[in-house]
Amino acid sequence: MVEEKFIKEVTSVLGEKGILLGSEVTERKAGIWIEEPIKSKVILRPRNTEELSKILIVCNKFKQPIVPHGGLTGLVESAITNEEEVIISSERMINIEEVDVTGRTLTAQAGVKLQTIQEEAESKGMFFPLDLGARGSCTIGGNASTNAGGNRVIRYGMTRELILGLEAVLADGKIISSMNKMLKNNAGYDLKQLFIGSEGTLGIISKVVLRLQEKPLSQNTALLAAESFQQVSELLKHIDSMLGGNLSAFEVMWRDFYLLVTSPPAINKPPIDQKYPYYILVEYSGSDQAKDSEHFNLILEKALEKNLITDAVIAKSESDRRKLWAIRDDVEQQYQYGPIKIFDVSLPINCMEGYIKDVRKKMSEHWKDFHCTVFGHLADCNLHIITAVGGNDPSSISKMEECVYEPLRSFRGSVSAEHGIGLEKKNYLGISRTDEELALMKSLKNNLDPNNILNPGKIFG
Ligand SMILES: Cc1cc2nc3c(=O)[nH]c(=O)nc-3n(C[C@H](O)[C@H](O)[C@H](O)COP(=O)(O)OP(=O)(O)OC[C@H]3O[C@@H](n4cnc5c(N)ncnc54)[C@H](O)[C@@H]3O)c2cc1C
């Protein structure tokens, strides 16, 4: 039980509006795709870094475990709470403090939604490239703490590459303000990296300085079909080299994924016949629509000549482009299969074809009827695998996990490409990390959070 004295002390810092109790908490769902309610009984809602720091001092004094909450779109149970834990939500830390067009930076509090940041950058003629399906709900603090990836990683990198500065509050309330705005800064350790991708276990992010880019002035998008995986990987090399490294997206869908998302009851229609084994959504952002389209078409013609693709549909308008992306983004169709398990792994591109065959073979040893649909940000070495075996009982889940994770061991693939570890993957972290790496992670955690109050039990422990 959370102590009464604790509640009194945090209320004196935050005021009545800064704390939610009882049904105001339990009426909320534990996550955007989770039906169960939040188990914690207390949500603390600081408005700024100073309030956050003061409440962390109280939490540390009472050794009160806390779980940071952003938009609750995380997919690995990293924001799940129990009854003893208290939530610190960034929902009132929603100010965009500055957009510096000359310096190409945007400074925002952690609770600002990703889409709001994209729109703010756009309104100033700039571009913030991070983009994911959850853009309308996820927060920039959540993106930073999960080091989110998304659709444009091949061109702009993951969230880590888009953050120049960051402010975080440690478990003892100390404010670490690394609000750097320069592209170059090698003055000692880059401390912000401790908090990016550490899922709220080392500190709570209060602010970020984001790196903005110039807005692309042209978009060229096509859906392509290929007959073999060999063609897909040669196509990547072909397109990327002809674009001089300016490829913006290279998303691949295995046939069963494409079939599902382009057949009723899905609303999208198949722009290309459903008979091919691989479908590739390619995008190139440039600066001159007419010239870029001509060059893009030439690249695709050459790909046809070289027999790297069998069919192609090129978007002729923004509406066509959205329709092509809607196919790739309609992941929720997977729920037609009943309970599903979403995997997010990474591995070298040249191991992918054999790996997927291996996963399917392993699954067929356990189940006669199963689904294993595959798609992903292939150019980033990242595949999403969605499995369905008719049930989600613990034994089925652990068998599915073994089928997907164990084959990664031999080529040191990652059990998490972009979603993080949370509670869901912590038993498998050892597949992707050495004992020495794990020991160093744990020692950092012990050092920064000796009372283990920050998101305890997540990632490891
Ligand atoms: C439809 C959909 C599509 C998605 N697509 C992608 C994708 O393409 N790529 C991708 O990488 N992910 C994707 N995700 C996963 C998810 O959106 C990201 O992990 C996102 O970054 C989480 O942000 P959030 O604000 O919702 O964080 P939450 O879910 O609230 O929290 C996630 C983790 O961050 C911690 N946290 C939150 N805020 C803070 C803070 N201020 N300081 C410290 N820790 C904090 C939480 O404790 C938790 O550990 C998708 C999810 C959905 C539902």
Key descriptive features of the protein:
461 residues, alpha+beta, Uridine Diphospho-n-acetylenolpyruvylglucosamine Reductase, domain 2, Uridine Diphospho-n-acetylenolpyruvylglucosamine Reductase, domain 3, 5-stranded antiparallel beta sheet, 16 helices, binds flavin-adenine dinucleotide
What's the SSE blueprint?
Layout: H1 4-14, E1 19-21, H2 23-26, E2 29-31, E3 34-37, E4 42-44, H3 49-61, E5 66-69, E6 86-89, E7 96-100, E8 105-109, H4 114-123, E9 126-127, H5 140-146, H6 153-156, H7 159-162, E10 163-169, E11 175-178, H8 192-195, E12 204-211, E13 213-214, E14 218-226, H9 229-242, E15 247-254, H10 255-261, E16 278-286, H11 289-305, E17 311-314, H12 318-329, E18 341-346, H13 352-366, E19 371-376, E20 382-388, H14 394-405, H15 429-432, H16 435-448
Parallel strand pairs: 4-6, 5-6
Antiparallel strand pairs: 1-4, 2-3, 7-8, 8-12, 9-13, 10-11, 10-12, 14-16, 14-17, 15-16, 15-19, 18-20, 19-20
Helix pairs in contact: 1-3, 13-14
The structure holds flavin-adenine dinucleotide.
